[in-house]
Amino acid sequence: MRQRWLWLIAAGLLVIAAAWLVRIPEARAPAARPEVEMPRQLRPEERQRMLARLRPPVDAGVRRNEVRDPMLAALSAGGSGSGMVLEVNALRNSPLGELLLQCLAAREGRGNALEALQRMGIDPLRDVDRVGITEHGIVVSGDFRRANWEGLLGSPGGSAYGEQGQITSVDPRADGGSRLIATRWGDSLLHLGDSVEDGRRVVDVVEGRGPAPRPLLTPEQSYGELYGVVSGADLARTVGASEAWATALVEAASKVEIHLDARRDVALVADVSGDDARKLEDLGKSLGGALALARAQARAGGDVDAAELLSFARVSPARGDALSVEVALPLEVVARHLASCRGDVDAGR
Amino acid sequence: MTSLAVALDLLREAAARRWFLALGLALTGLLMLLLTSLRLEVVDGALAASRLFGQPLHHSIQAADVALRPVFLVASQIVFWGGLGFGVLSCADFAPALLSPGRIEHLLSLPVRRWELLAGTFLGVLALALAGAVYASAGLVLVLGAKTGVWTGWPVVSAVLAAVAFGSVYAGMLAVTVWVRSAALSAAAGATLVLLGLLATHRVPLLDLMGRGVGRALFAGVTAVVPPLGKLADAAGALASSAPLAPGGLLRLLAGTVAFAGALLAVAMWRFDRRDF
Lengths: 349, 277
Known about the structure:
Order of helices and strands of chain B: HHEEEEHHHHHHHHHH
Structural class of chain A: alpha+beta
Radius of gyration of chain B: 21 Å
Shape of chain A: elongated
Helix content of chain B: over 70%
Order of helices and strands of chain A: HHEEHEHHHEEHEEEEHEHHEEHHEEH
Number of helices of chain A: 13
Distance between the termini of chain B: 24 Å
Number of strands of chain A: 14
Shape of chain B: globular
Number of domains of chain B: 1
Mean pLDDT of chain B: 90
Radius of gyration of chain A: 27 Å
Distance between the termini of chain A: 68 Å
Low-confidence stretches of chain B: none
Number of strands of chain B: 4
Largest sheet of chain B: 4 strands, antiparallel
Mean pLDDT of chain A: 79
Oligomer: heterodimer
Structural class of chain B: alpha+beta
Number of domains of chain A: 2
């Protein structure tokens, strides 16, 4: 008889235990996988930024209906197949930007470029908005109203061209180098190239004269902190071909569109297009293998964060004549790689 | 030991039933189909291409273990919820058969204590659930492991969780059967417990929606005790797909589920002890 009641007492105690065990609030929140947003399209704030940059070209006082981004127009002027844009203003407010600035500021031995520019009236941290690079030169946009052009270019004026253009020939430095052609457009755009023709083309395109060149980048492509298009030939020169995936990349890719989000962890999207579907397929497999290998190496090295973020790495196979690569890297890993230029002796520990 | 003998007897009985024969054949057939018709190409640890029945499957190229995570996640959910559903239906008449007139009198005449009979029945069903879940998940792990080189034991651990969850449901079915010997009622009790387990998973938001009163207090009381099966399923999925889990959270959830099953078994034994046959 007593044993029967023991069953009930046991049941009561177990019910209480069950309720206690499954209901007590958890002491620690569950760990979550990191979330990485790949740059795939304009974010709302980037769309606003893009719209604010669009200007109607003004030629001989005639305002046209079309609008264009002077920076992107200037990059397209040379008809180049490759060009990259660095959103300096957006990047400097990001953790990665701070790391890069520390890197620049630490290069005392070669002369601090930031301080030199500041002495000439351009504060790269405040006045420079974007820096674009093509094979025809460098384009810098921003607010240069306070710039000391004489100190910067060695000449206060230069020859006027178009509505707002000023083309100045900068003599080679004492320690060598070639002649530089600096083309200013108003107080918001500066093109540094090596021929007057390039400078004139830039002003013509920005002011809307002559036939519009094929755009290297459209305003809708201006998302991420770093973006651009690289041709297959330029890619070959940049990447080299020491690794299997690099060889496959150079052989298969005719054009690569890159977008990098550096607001926190670094997320990179590269859309690769090529003419040979078979080679693209092989490239996708090689890249996928290389990324999986990198993740395995990170895990083997005990770098859990990097391995976790590298698990986001994927190659979307060829959709006709294109494939897409997505890679994410933790900021800490990037910081470790930048540590040598920052002179941080504790880096990587 | 006597309980184990009863459990083995139940397993022998299960082996003779078409339900379990069909389940075993279906699982084996499915695994053999995967083994023979799925082609996976792995390059440097990345799943580069897949073909099923010769047709290419379109997916991203990524590390093979990462690519298999969703596969194991889906498999774990099928094993968990499918196992619960199949278990409730197929195991509903084990206990009624045990208590059937003639058989129970014969069993009670043997040198077996009453609680050993119930415990043996429970253990037999639990072993059956465990065998089915582990066979399905271990088979999947073996097939995919052989094709990709990705070997992981977590989907099997996740299957054990599914079996534990079914154990808590079956304890309720057994307790109901001791009162009323009916396979239909036993199955209904199992289905009700699964439903309550789902409601218990979303207990707090549901309570927020309810106005104060007897109904709310009743709901709060019942769902405070029933194991949140949805959370257990999520944990099983997270385990199978190598997702992070709250430290200690799973162990407490498992212990709570086992305690709930133990409570229902104790109630069943209390009733069985004082019942005349």
